[in-house]
Write a structure and sequence with these properties.
The structure is a homodimer.
Chain A: H1 3-20, E1 24-30, E2 33-37, H2 38-45, E3 53-56, E4 62-71, E5 77-88, E6 92-94, H3 97-103, E7 109-110, E8 119-125, E9 128-139, E10 142-145, H4 147-153, E11 160-165, E12 171-180, E13 187-191, H5 192-198, E14 205-209
Parallel strand pairs in A: 1-13, 2-5, 6-9, 7-9, 10-12
Antiparallel strand pairs in A: 1-14, 2-6, 3-4, 4-5, 4-8, 8-9, 10-13, 11-12, 11-14
Chain lengths: ~210, ~210
């Protein structure tokens, strides 16, 4: 290849990269975790107990030092389930379908916060246990983005989009929820089943198809 | 709706069903399992031991009564891993990526039987244990079909196709291997991660896209 052809090729590749940049969404894989309300923190960690942040997440959330054990109908525990802070209005447990099978539960696939008609679950902490009639979900895969990102993609909060996964186990995923908020940074959240089945991991990228 | 419109609607629906019939592939979900060679059966179940079939599978294979415990680099065992018969030329352990993470292994995604450069694993049976340098894979998703089915779809053995999954967590899966043999009945095999991530289970259907 002569020098001129090489320059053309490099220019073409660089332009391709620039033009495709904005359709690329980094992946964050969510392992099973728990959000707690004030009352439930009191019950399982002790009255007035404050969670200890150890890692900052987007939107003012954080991973806490604290973990709980969760138990379902099969009475097989899953230990060391991370608590996420800060405290929420309602306690919510997010598991994968693989976890759910192990627990003996059949939680629905739902967006975070939508807890009506979800699965019952028991949480055990160092100072007590709580058994919830509702609260366990499989989180619906979703893309967090800022309002600016949303304008660039031409999408709105709660819109359903598709993404292309270009791994060896990839394809196109439908029913991906868009969640827009100023405090969000661009990231698609999938659970461990989705990451493992699709052959992708944290910081890999997918392409949004609007 | 008058009677004539109703007849038209029913005819249309029936024709749609007939025309789409052949693109519909039933799903079989493969949980973790083990194929054993004669020498390894001898080592872990005893010299000359014969496996006990309890459930017939396609292609002359069967699920055996026997199970083993598998152990990886983390020394965390997974118990009750089903043995499939009959005996094969080489021992092969098929796990999901979720299993692999738990075991501390990084097996490649490969078609069954392709065991070069695969992950090491230990198998424990009632009469002994074996530690293999190779033999653990994540099975590449594939569609079994007869030669007649292959002719109807216009595909060949080892061809790569796509499938459409129409569940709430669905989409289109690429890199699906076609495996043709007279003894096969039409069925797409996926592992538990893929089934859980895509919201499908045994006897659900997908659509082949050639």
């Amino acid at each position: 290849m002569d020098q001129s052809a090489l320059v053309d090729l490099i220019s073409k590749k660089v332009l391709e990269q620039i033009n495709s940049k904005k359709s690329v969404i980094p992946i964050g894989v969510s392992a099973r975790h728990v959000h707690l309300c004030r009352e439930d923190v009191d019950k399982i960690f002790g009255k007035g107990y404050e969670l200890t942040p150890i890692k900052e997440l987007m939107g003012g959330q954080y991973a806490a030092k604290e973990t709980v054990t969760i138990v379902g109908t099969k009475l097989r525990p899953i230990e060391n389930v991370r608590v996420l802070g800060p405290i929420r209005e309602r306690t919510q447990v997010e598991v994968s379908k693989t976890d759910a099978v192990r627990l003996g539960l059949n939680p629905p696939v739902k967006p975070s916060g939508d807890l009506d008609n979800t699965a019952p679950i028991t949480l055990v902490g160092p100072k007590g246990a709580i058994s919830l009639d509702n609260g366990c979900i499989i989180a619906m895969r979703h893309i967090h983005m800022s309002s600016e990102d949303a304008r660039e993609y031409g999408v709105k909060d709660k819109q359903i989009v598709k993404v292309r996964v270009s791994s060896d186990r990839g394809g196109i995923l439908t029913n991906v929820l868009v969640r827009v908020h100023e405090s969000y940074r661009l990231e698609m959240h999938i659970d461990t089943d989705e990451a493992n089945a699709l052959g992708i991991k944290c910081n890999d990228s997918v392409e949004i198809l609007v």
